[in-house]
Amino acid sequence: MSAGLLGVYSFGGAAELWPLVFYGLKAMANRGDSAEAYVYDGGSLRRVEVDLAREAEKSLRGVAAVGCVSPDGGCCAESPGGVRCGSGGTYVELGRDGVLRAKRGAQLWHLAVGTHGFDFAIVATESAAAEILGGEVRRSLAPGEELEITELSVEARRGGLRGPVCALEFVYTARPDSRIDGVEVAAARAKVAERLAAKIGVVPDVVVGVPETGSYYAAHIAAALGKPYIPAFVATARGRSALLDELRERMAVIQLKANVIESAVRGRKVLLVDDSVISGVTLRLIAKLLREKGGALEVHAAVVAPPLRRQCPHGVKMPPASHMIFNAVPPDDVKHVLELDGLTFLGWEELEEVFKELGLPVCTLCMRA
Amino acid sequence: MDKVLVVGDGAREHAIAWALERSGVVVGAVAGHLNPGLVEVARRTGGRVFRQPPTDPAAVVKSAEEFSPDLVVVGPEEPLFAGVADALRERGFRVVGASRRLAVVEMRKDLARSLQWKYGVPGRLIYGVFKNVEEAYGFSKALGAVAIKPIRQAGGKGVRVVYGDVQYLELDEMYKRGAEDVLRQLSHYDDVEVAVLVEEAVRGVEFTLQALTDGETLFFFPPVQDNPHAFEYGLGPECGGMGTVSPLPFLEEGEVEEAKKAVEATVKALQTEVGERYVGVISGQMMLTARGPVVIEYYSRLGDPEALNALFLYEGDVYELFSLTADGKLHKAKPTFKDGHVVVKAAAPLGYPHRKDLAKGRVVSIDWDVIRREGCLIFFSSVEERDGLYVTLGSRALEVLAYGATPEEAYIRSERCMAAVRGGGLFYRRDIGSPEYMAAMREKAEKTRLVYRWRRAHGLDGRVLLWEPGVGLREYRL
To answer: CA of A240, closest CA in chain B: separation in Å?
Structure first.
């Protein structure tokens, strides 16, 4: 998944930037637990430690700041000219001369620009971050567009061909309340849910979803099927397990992520909606929990993202191809391996079609065999 | 042939002169610098440019006596504030331009608000006036989202908007700094006491409603949308305005009508309060908000660049229109406007609006073939001509007007013409008038409309209670 990038520029000279930097990064905690930031105070550039878990009282006076949220940290790199956060051609950069540059690469990743009154420009991977900062979102940068912000000017340079956006951004990484290229992520997800619902051949008694993103899809699928959606899991710890490659680590996270509410599923035919399947280990464990602890009668699964088949050629961190269940098990056997009564998912072609209807080209290379 | 003297030296005055030239009159101007546009119109019509400060009543009267015009049109606000229209009228000139006492509606934001409240002019906002930072801070904190402004019009400068309703952002510093900046800003003026106006910050779709008035009738031009942020995508500091679009397909007729009523009521209230007849221009800088149209502030003149849109779209004879205004016969004027759309864009030198030292002395050239081919018009502002090139003086250099049958056509032409304006260190806003821009405005207007209609349907528009800890409860009836 892509890191959450943030840039803040104060047009009125040095100002207190800490609340903007902290909450701007916090607004992108869906992209990881590690945050870092750099501030330009009018003379020099320095690094600032940010702990997203603690709302520390801090002072950070400066003209401009950049920062980044990622799973493991280290998404900002210093250079003689300044600091650059991001990768894959999409970045926010703060020079030692105080110039803020933000570039959205031709493909895959997103950056939005917003404003807070006359005083601040805000650039962020998640457009919602600008709203969280009390500001207004202006627009998505065009793929290939670079924005250069100084005290005297904002220069936008548009460039070249536009490539597809990473499908996983839309399917589960991005905040649902963000907008990418004019389309609200939640609205795109609703369309995907509609498409998936049309493929489900079973009539469940109840629809449940896991994790948070899966619940959103579950609610839409339930509405399409005319069946109730009931929250059936309680999370103790939040965090994404799908893209961690250590199996054991993942199992530990699952226990913390989804404890089953028995009365929601007991004696019922359950449709479980998950946002993704890679190894299938999560799904298998949850199905097991639904049966053994919850007393579910049947567990049918609907998976939103087409199963991953290979590692991202653009460098998104993913488990090796050998850990992807559809590479190892014949498709018809997968549901038996995962101990499910049924399994429905979208093919990558179907997913591309949904986004095509929305006018959004997406990259699905990791979902293709 | 009749003679008209235009007071002022910006793109707005160039546009007024351009429109008057089309009426076939001799055009003169009182200008602080040799605006190449005014120089050209004066040359073509057999008039002349008096290089005198437009804000100096004695100098303007002297120029007028020399030129002996049949009508004087005062363009900018500062000459009005300085009493230029009054001085001209005293000497018997026919003038389009508010008197000093009436122009207070623009000059003093605090008095404009108090007038609105006193006479029940619609489109009011809750406000307070404070002489020190601490008091302003307390009131700001209670209101939450506020605009902090100097009580005197200061060229759009010094205004700060703080969305302090987002409590966790601890924007206390911004409230205080806003108030401090305003107080500092005002210390440069000796015609007003130093105080801060704090009012509710509203969000929505801005538009300017410009009108001529003879004190009885208001002649409205189609609404225009200005863009006050200096930089691309509406980022950066507030400035004189970087570009406009008109007409505004995203506004409903009823909303424009409401705004007209507010401006009309203002003229009435103002005349009652001051005891003088308003002869000149009155404009409402409006915003369609969750309360419906509200008045952000007033202009006692045409906007710049909004004047360009208004005068270009007007199909009648502008000299006749101004004459009817000056003679109290405005009811005879016919509101006929061109179909089609106008996009205006300003080109400004890097450094504008806050670093005029850097913005001076930049050289601009224009490829006139492109301008003619696209049917654009160029209105000069803060530049002077030197050997076919134009040298910037520190403010907006020029404005390009493009016309098209559709908003998109006007936009594309404006972009092509802007590409024909060349020079190191110039900037302009590409986004203004683009299809994305128009779509975003439409969406914003639609959402805002739903809210104000709902609020009105539920009787929520009447009463606002504001609790300021340590001060008490205030009730406002809107």
So the answer is: 27
Residue ranges of chain A assigned to CATH 3.40.50.2020: 187-367
Question: Which of B161, B170, B350 is facing A118, going by the closest CB pair?
Answer: B161
Q: Could you tell me if B92 and B38 lie in one domain?
A: yes
- The verdict on a CB contact (< 8 Å) between A113 and B171 is no
Q: Which residue has the tokens 């051949």?
A: A201
Strands A298-303 and A342-345, sheet pairing? parallel
Reported as a single tens digit per residue, the pLDDT across A292-325 is 999 999 999 999 999 999 999 988 888 899 989 9
Do residue B63 and residue B12 come from a single domain? Answer: yes
Residue B474 in domain: no
Least confident residue range of A115-124, B156-165, B274-283: B156-165
H or E, element range at B37: helix B36-45
Domains identified in chain B, total number: 4
A80 exposure class (CB count in 10 Å sphere: 0-12, 13-18, 19+): exposed
User: Do residues B278 and B269 touch, judged by C-beta distance below 8 A?
Assistant: no
Q: What topology is assigned to A187-367 in CATH?
A: Rossmann fold (3.40.50)
Q: Right CATH number for A4-163 from 3.20.20.140, 3.60.20.10, 3.10.129.10, 3.40.50.150?
A: 3.60.20.10
DSSP class of residue A308 equals P
In sequence order, the 6+-apart residues with CB closer than 8 A to the CB of B199 are B113, B125, B126, B127, B128, B143, B146, B147, B149
Residues of A with CB under 8 A from a CB of B: 11-12, 15-16, 19-20, 23, 113, 115-119, 121, 133-136, 138-139, 147, 149, 151-156
Q: What is the CATH number of the domain that holds B155?
A: 3.30.1490.20
Output the DSSP codes for B212-258: EE-SS-EEEPPPBEE--EEEGGGEEEE-S-SEEEES-TTS-HHHHHH
Q: Which two tokens stand for residue A305?
A: 């993202």
Contact B401, B348 (CB under 8 A): no
Q: Would you give the end-to-end CA distance of chain A in angstroms?
A: 20
Residue A337 has pLDDT above 70, yes or no: yes
Mutate to test the interface with B, among A154, A157, A181 (most CBs of B within 10 A): A154
- Residue B78 is predicted with a pLDDT of 96
CA of A200: how far to CAs of A26, A281, A343, A350, A353, in Å? Answer: 37, 22, 9, 14, 18
Q: Which of B169, B201, B236 lies closest to A133 in CB terms?
A: B169
Helix (H, G, I), strand (E, B) or coil at A228: coil
The residue among B59, B80, B97 that closes a domain is B97
Contact B79, B60 (CB under 8 A): yes
